[in-house]
Design brief:
Chain A is mostly helical. Chain A has two domains: 1-117, no CATH class; 147-193, no CATH class. Chain A is 79% helix and 0% strand. Chain A has helices at 2-20, 24-36, 43-55, 60-75, 80-107, 116-140, 143-146, 153-171, 177-191. The longest helix of chain A has 28 residues, at 80-107. Chain A is globular, with a radius of gyration of 19 Å. Chain A starts with a helix and ends with a helix. With 180 residues, chain B is mainly α. Chain B folds into three domains: 3-102, no CATH class; 105-134; 136-180, no CATH class. In chain B, 79% of the residues lie in helices and 0% in strands. Chain B has helices at residues 3-17, 26-36, 42-54, 59-102, 106-133, 142-153, 158-176. The longest helix of chain B has 44 residues, at 59-102. The mean pLDDT of chain B is 87. Classes of the chains: A mainly alpha (193), B mainly alpha (180). Chains A and B meet through α1, α2, α3, α4 and α5 of A and α1, α3, α4, α5 and α6 of B.
Chain lengths: 193, 180
């Protein structure tokens, strides 16, 4: 019974994420995070999932849904094959709203996409997605990802330095994000071992 | 050649070879579906990007469903969506199955201690880029700020915020500024 429940919850959660996930992969992250942390995993596990989703090929939304589905079942004490099923349920649920919506739009509504009503709805959604991304950033700025000056001043200062370096590197110098992750990992190995 | 297999294969390749997610996929998708296979015209592709961006869900999946549907209706859409999602699904499964065994390894743990703050910065950067393209100014900057604070400090579900923002935009266009 409990096991069936976790799949049902995974399905419903990722269906909602697929339905309300505006603004692409990053826009989805705050939705995914508020749903899966702390119910199914810790913040640091979630951050690791984001990192791995970014370094592996494919859309970040699909990658993180697959991984979160696996992790939720794994953390609930289920075995490998049951966790694979969790991955499948989460990924399928994420894609299902797209499948329904895009087919309806392709079939019927393409001509309505440019009407004033639809355009004004999007004029409200666009600034909101910026807020979602800001929320995702703020939610991840916690002690699990950065440590604190009290518990580990060294790790905290290195973390802040890596945050600033990655921000400036990708924003100002347009360094490839994957390259940035690899370098940050290397810095972690050298400085935080 | 069988169009289902052909479109599945094309989107499988797109899913397998694009790093960095959605927007990084656009050039590759364009090369494949516009230049190589002529499934959509250049103009249609631009409309398609605008529509897929406005719709909820994974950007690359939305594009693939639209093209699949245009080719062979629902079955075509299933073939292309499966093609886009499958490489991600398989690669992540492999990693998920083995990663937790190394999680407690000292070397892996320290690498991820360095990666985590970098990942937070990688999410912070598109916030500012998106603010630019969403034309955030002094007049409307309260919307993202209020939303971020509601979600971050008050624990409001982002879903309610999205619904509210959509309704707000609709009301604004309908009641306050009907001519714009």
């Amino acid at each position: 019974m409990d096991i069936a429940l976790i799949y049902l919850e995974l399905f419903w959660t990722f269906f909602l994420i697929g339905l309300f996930g505006f603004g692409g992969g990053y826009g989805m992250l705050s939705l995914i995070q508020t749903k899966v942390v702390p119910a199914w995993m810790t913040t640091s596990q979630f951050t690791d999932i984001v990192a791995i989703s970014q370094m592996t090929p494919g859309p970040i939304g699909i990658n993180s849904a697959t991984y979160c589905g696996y992790m939720a079942c794994h953390n609930a004490g289920l075995g490998t094959s049951m966790s694979v099923l969790g991955s499948f349920v989460a990924t399928f649920a994420l894609v299902l709203p797209s499948l329904i919506l895009m087919i309806i739009i392709a079939k019927l509504f393409i001509k309505y996409m440019n009407t004033p009503t639809v355009q004004s709805v999007f004029s409200g959604l666009r600034p909101a997605v910026v807020g979602l991304l800001a929320a995702a950033t703020l939610l991840l700025c916690n002690s699990e990802n950065f440590s604190t000056p009290k518990t580990d001043a060294w790790q905290f200062s290195i973390s802040v330095a890596l945050f600033v370096a990655t921000f400036v590197g990708t924003k100002v110098y347009q360094v490839n994000p994957i390259k940035m992750i690899v370098m940050a990992g290397f810095a972690g190995l050298l400085l935080l071992y | 050649m069988n169009i289902y297999w052909d479109s599945f294969k094309t989107f499988f390749k797109i899913g397998l070879f694009t790093l960095g997610g959605g927007y990084a996929m656009i050039p590759l998708i364009e090369t494949e579906v516009v230049d190589k296979h002529h499934w959509v015209s250049k103009e249609e592709f631009l409309d398609l990007i605008a529509i897929s961006q406005s719709c909820p869900g994974v950007f690359a999946i939305n594009i693939s469903i639209f093209i699949g549907y245009k080719l062979r209706k629902v079955r075509g859409a299933l073939a292309t969506a499966l093609g886009t999602a499958l490489p991600s699904f398989l690669i992540i499964l492999l990693i998920a199955m083995f990663f937790h065994r190394f999680e407690d390894n000292h070397v892996v743990a320290s690498i991820f201690r360095g990666i985590r703050p970098a990942v937070v910065a990688l999410i912070a950067v598109p916030t500012f880029n998106l603010a630019k393209s969403a034309k955030i100014s002094w007049v409307n900057c309260w919307i993202p700020i209020a939303g971020a604070l509601l979600i971050w400090l008050m624990g409001v579900s982002p879903i309610y915020f999205i619904i509210l923002a959509g309704l707000g935009g609709w009301a604004y266009g309908r009641i306050i500024k009907p001519t714009a």
